Structures are given as structure tokens and as C-alpha cells.
Histidine--tRNA ligase
Amino acid sequence: MKLANKPYKGTADWFPQEFTIRKYIFDVWRDVCTRFGYEEYLSPLVEPIELFQAKSGEDLGGRELMTITDRAGRVVAIRPEMTPSVTRMVSQIYETTTKPIRYFSIANFMRAEKPQRGRNREFWQLNYDIFGAEGISADLEILQIALEIMLSFEPPKGSFTLFLNHRKLIDELLRSIKIEDDAVTEAIRIMDKWEKLTLPDLEERLEKIGADQNAIEKIGKFMELTEMDGLLAEFPELKDTIGLKDVNSLIISLTKMGYGDWIKFQPNIIRGFDYYDGMVFEVFDNNPSNLRSLFGGGRYNGLSSIFGSEDIPAVGCAPGDETIKLFLESWGLLDQLESSKTDKYYLPLIDERYDTQCELLAKSLRSEGKIVERGLSLIKPGKALSYADKKRFRFVILLGEEEIRSNTYTLKDLSTGEQKNIAYSELQS
Amino acid sequence: MKLANKPYKGTADWFPQEFTIRKYIFDVWRDVCTRFGYEEYLSPLVEPIELFQAKSGEDLGGRELMTITDRAGRVVAIRPEMTPSVTRMVSQIYETTTKPIRYFSIANFMRAEKPQRGRNREFWQLNYDIFGAEGISADLEILQIALEIMLSFEPPKGSFTLFLNHRKLIDELLRSIKIEDDAVTEAIRIMDKWEKLTLPDLEERLEKIGADQNAIEKIGKFMELTEMDGLLAEFPELKDTIGLKDVNSLIISLTKMGYGDWIKFQPNIIRGFDYYDGMVFEVFDNNPSNLRSLFGGGRYNGLSSIFGSEDIPAVGCAPGDETIKLFLESWGLLDQLESSKTDKYYLPLIDERYDTQCELLAKSLRSEGKIVERGLSLIKPGKALSYADKKRFRFVILLGEEEIRSNTYTLKDLSTGEQKNIAYSELQS
């Protein structure tokens, strides 16, 4: 039987060229989080499904779970997101650990959704979170890191916008239009799908949770707002809410810190996770060729209650690899990465008598931190040069009779064409 | 309902202290492979199960698979090992790519086995392989990298041994005792379990594949050999086999290259994967408290045939995180890693009026590459110092009225007790 050699639907083979791009993104994530004092952790790949069923929402925590029944009959799922897992971890150590706790992780996830541009079944995410800090200083730091990550890619002005909102503002809206407390989760799920569902579908789902015609109209108006002024004119009753006050403070602070051009209040940013209960935000690509939400985050103080813990103040964010890559492509920010020659050395075997000397020279150069690829079979110097050129290596090292006699090696720099002889001390093990 | 906050059986939560150890191991892996000119790739987390059923062996490719049935009814499994996946990837590009191809990856895997010391259900592995190189120079490089990885941890002399063997030697033995060709795979599976099964079980399984009493005895004797001399005395008919010739050449070369003290020929090293067909090896911890196989590798030219490709010469190795960690622990090689103070800066808010200045100073220091943790709420200087001490930060920065007035900040070095004032240019965004 012959097997197919293509990857499973919605997953991808990352050959080295692709891996270089992903690693560039991961390195930026790790670097920024580390500079802000975040510590790296990792959760298990699978968790009992109840963990995700609790509050991940109807898609992620439901039909999109990739589930496995183990031999003991236990049902586990590949993590579709990190927030429940990291909350589970933190709930173990919260009482005994110095707070605030700043954590980040870079991990792979799976969701059984229909693959489409920007969405794979397997994907990688950075998750960074602060636990144990209630005030908006923590919100501010989470937003700043999101901005610093984006700015690390050196994007052009106006290329992205971070849209800020607050779940307590939505809660207040729903209260003002008489949505019952126990229908709030469903109302927010509906609002989160505003762009994806048809108007009749939206109305039907809203009527089911007791929204009257006025309420439906108000929600519709709210979802079309794009400015603070419009919000205050249309919904003066929301003016003095905590949500709006916090959003205003955050915008003022971010502006003082130099991020004013990149941020904007946007009342229809919802975030489709049931557990958010404070500030929420999403970063959007403004490139006409790639208008999309890149990633987002928010506050979720209440999630820890699923473990029977007291509320643990928590706020975080989760950028994904695929959308960040689309952003970088849309603005041509990967071009340099793809064209650079690598500082690698190629050390071919041009004279069989000196195989051991070649090995020892390679060993010695590597111990200095150099990247040295050995030729595994006899090759003519000319062919060696064209091999190195094809593989975009910068240096070729030749070790033939003449070199051995003079205790040197010939170093060719393919980027300049220069060639020199370099002495080495004896090649002995 | 209250959920448990412990991880799923056989998986682990890596809190930052644990993550630091794993990352140290991963960084060594990546560093050594990179210096040998290997390029990093990554395969999908899941593959159609047929890929592993083909040649991963009765355990890994059978009852230990963690399987998922997707909504289209397709059955996939979380990868239990990398070799079939990377072979699948390479088979796509083999014809059109400059050879040899040197690849490595660091990835997570799952096997539904009984968790025990050194074996978790989820684990991480380095896989490094050369494709498209037939001769023993490639085998040699794979062995050298295994040794360099081990030596990078700076272990004491005699702490580990790399045991070398050759599948063609085993094949020759089986032929000499009249095991039929189509029973060789099963015979090797039985030999691989020699230590784990009882003698009657071994005999029963061997009889089933047609081994007579002489053959069973011979296999028993072979499995007890530990020296080249013993092998030649007991099995003179194996003297001129390719397997033995290759093993000898490899040992001579490795000795010339300075690795002689770390390597040894060992005829009963089998490796429990059906696909191996040339040199095989395993690295063992020699610590009496942790006598175990750490990892291994070998040549598997024939595996690509499952994709209907021509044989692709392939040789590789796969160290795992858990056994390497046990090795490091057994020799006390993690002690230094665990006790060091981090070069982090703590910048607390000691005067609310200067919140924005603190933010801007933190931003400026981070842009110089420093790791700066901001205090999120007002704190007294004394408490700030004890917080930093508890978290093992090296530096504390204080920005109060006096400092602001003189355009400086106070820098305290907790490792020396020194304190100085450092001037900054204006703190504006």
C-alpha cells in the first residue's frame, strides 16, 4: 500500500524556509515578553474536555474540540486555547506565590474548524497573562506588550490598529435594554457573531433570550458605532459606567507613553470567549489586502471559579502565528528575512587523505560557535563552490595538500569573492 | 461543578522553574544541530494513523497511538515519533533538493503508555537526520552530534556510554540460524524485548516464527555478548559482514576524533523500530542511580518505500527531554542552573505622581534589551526591595521626587549592595 505524502487537512509541513519565518515570529514574542519580566511556562498538550467545555464558548469548547478517548475511557482534548490551562496551573500555586504572576508560553493548539486563509486546524500561539493584579495598570501592560510585539516587526505607520473595548460596557448596555442576567452570555455570543450571521438569524436568537424589538434595535445601533462621540450621543446612559471610565484612562495612558497613533476605542469589539469580564481588545491589520483581526485579549477574573477557587484577577492576550504571518506578508515585512545569505561555512572533502583533519578542523571551528557543514563524500573544489552558492552559504573552507603542508586552510568568502589563508594550530584530537 | 486542577495522567505542568530546565536542554539541542549545519523544520502534530501503523512497530504504531476521529470520519493520531513524518516531508522534496538534506526539529509527542520514571505520555524530542547520504560518513556525523550534545552538558568522565551496533549484523545472525526472511521483523521485535519478557515467553514467540532449539540458544548467547572478541569467538561466521566492518570503521574514526572514551560496540543493541536497517546506537547513563537508555538512533533507508518512493538513504537520532533531564539530575548537572540570580530589573511605583515617568523609563531600558518588571501598584521602597529579593532579581530602580528633580534614577544592585544614581535624558514619549 502506498501512503499519501501530504499533511493532514488544516495542518502544514514547515520546511526550513517556512520554519525560519515562524521562528522569527516566535523569537519576537519571546524577546518582548522576556523584556517585560514574563516567565515562560508550558501546559500539557491535552486536558480533560470538561476544562474547555466550561467557558471556552460554543465553538472552541464544543464541536471544534479534537477529542481522544484513552484506554481507561477518559476523554481528553487537544488544547484549543491556553487560557483555561494556564488558569488551572495558576490556581494550584496562586495562594503561595508572590503576586503579580507574569507568565507567557508559546505552544501549539488544534481546533477542528474549516481551514481557511488565516485559520489552520493546528496553529501556534503566544499567551501572556498577569494574574493577581486587579487595577488597570495590569490592563495597560498587557496592551503595551501587544503594541510592542507589533512594533518589533517595524511596520509602517497606520498599518495596524488596536481596538479597545470593555465587557462591563456591554453588560451595562444589556442591562439598560432589559436583557436578563442569565441571558447575558448568550447575548454576548450573538453579538460576537454579528458580522457572520444574517439579520433574521440574529433576531431569532435574540428573541429567544427575551429581547424585545427595542432591545434588538439598540443592539444593532450599538454594533454599528465606531466613535466615542457617537456612543455618548446614542447611549447617554452609558456615560458614567466603569467600563467607559477604564477605557478612557487606558487610552490616556497609552497616548502619554507614545502609542496614541496605534489605538482606538471601538464599542463593537466583543471577543468570543465566555470568560471575558473586563477590558477586551483586538488588533487589526489595516492593509486593504488583508483586513482582518490579527489577535486579541482581555480580562477574565472569573474563570478561576471553575476550579472552585476565589476569583483570580487575570488579564492576558494571545497572538497567533498564522495571522501575524499574513500581516507581515501584507506589508512586505518578510522580504529581508527571505533574501539574506547565511553566515555558514562549508567544509568539503577535496582530498581523501585529509578526512580526519577536516573532521578535526570542523570540530574546532564549531567549538568557536561557527556553523560548519561537512562534505560527506569526495568532491572537486569547483563543485564544492557551486554547492555552497546554491545553498547560500557565505564561506567555503578548502583543506588540500598545500594547506596541510603549511598548517593553514583556505577561506573563501562567497559574498565578497575574497580568499585568504588562515593558520591553525595542530589538528589533533 | 468544580474541576480538578491537576494535569492529565502522564502529562506535566511546566511552571517557570521546570521550563528553565527544559529550555536549557532544548537550547543545547538547537545549538549543536545548528553548528553542524542542520536546518530546523516542523511537521504537523497529527497525521493519518496509517503513517504510524506502517513501520513504527507494534507498540508505538499500535495500541499506544492517541487517535482522533474527525468530523469527516478520518482517523488521525498525535505523532508518537517523528521519523515517519519527516520521511513523508522529505519524500515530497527529495528529487528536487540539493543533497544531502540535514534536518532537525524539536517537537512534542504523545504515546498512550503507562507513565513511569523516564516515560511520560507527552514528551519532547529532538530529531536530527541526514537524507540522501549513503556512506558511513553520514552515520559518523549522526554519532558525533549525539556525543557533542551529551558533552555540551559538561558531564564527568565515564558518566555515559554510546553503544553501537548494526542491524545488518543482526540480519546476518538470523540468516545463519535459518530464520526466514519474512520472520526477521518479528524476530527483531522479540530480541528488542529480551530484557522485558520472560524466557518461556521469548521461546514461545521465537518458536512461532520457526526458530528451532539451536536458533533460540544462539540468539540467547548473542544477546549476552558485550565485547567484539566474544562475538568473534562465538560467531566466527559473522566476521566478514558489512555490519561488523562498518561498526569497526565508525569506532576507528570516532576514536581519531577524540571520542574514544565514550563509545563501545554492543551487539545486543536492537532499537525497537521496524524501519531500522543499518547502523543503530543507544546512549546509556552509567550512573548506578539511573542506569537506563537515554536515547538512540540509526539508519533507516527503507522507510520511504511506504510512500512509494525509491529508497531514500536516511540516518538519524532522537534524544528525549525526560531521559536527558534524569541524566542531568543523576550527575548534579542542573545545580548551577537552579541557583543563579537573574539579571532582571524591578521598577516599582514609589510615588504615584511619577507613574508616567516610570513607564517611560521602563520603556527606554527595555529598548536597550534590559529585562524590566514594572510595579503595578504603589509600594514603599523597603517593601519593593524585599519583593525583588524574594523574586531573585538583581536590580531595583527607584524613581522618587529627588530623582525626578535631578533627572536621575537610583539603581540598587542586590547582589553587591551597591547603589548609584544614573542620569537619563528626558523621559518623554
Q: What stands out?
A: The mean pLDDT of chain A is 92. Chain A has three domains: 10-157+295-339, 160-285, 341-428. The domain at 10-157+295-339 of chain A is CATH 3.30.930.10 (BirA Bifunctional Protein; domain 2). Chain A has 16 helices and 16 strands.
